Amino acid sequence: MTKLFATRLALLATMAMLASPAISAQQGDEAAPPSKPGKPINTGDVLSGELNAMKVRDVKKAGKRIAMYQITSEPRRLPAPNGLCNLETGPETFQLVLSSDAQATQLKSFVGKEISVKVDEIACASDPGQMSEAVITKWSLIKKQ
To answer: Which of 45, 67, 96, 97 is deepest in the core (most CB within 10 A)?
Structure first.
């Protein structure tokens, strides 16, 4: 029984020696300077990025699955009072709130592609069901030439 204990103790000591350089390397990464906040985005500005689609359950319509679209972009700072949305650099994911079935149809063909939208109204995500860091409640798609 003592031999088994000694073997396990030696194994633990070896694992600890191997893990300590990895731990110190990770601590060295933490000393990197903080990221700069993203450039500001205001009403009337254009937001560009990749369009993603997700199926989520609508809490208002008895759990019916609906499409939710979001743009993944570079970090952006929102106008006051929203600022950085409690993030170090600002939000990178922006949910597009659909106001009609026509908007949903319009976005469906652009999933996975780079799009640009004109932002008319934007805020930080605040509802539990929102999957993005920021929400664009009023927007219009900019046609690429």
So the answer is: 96
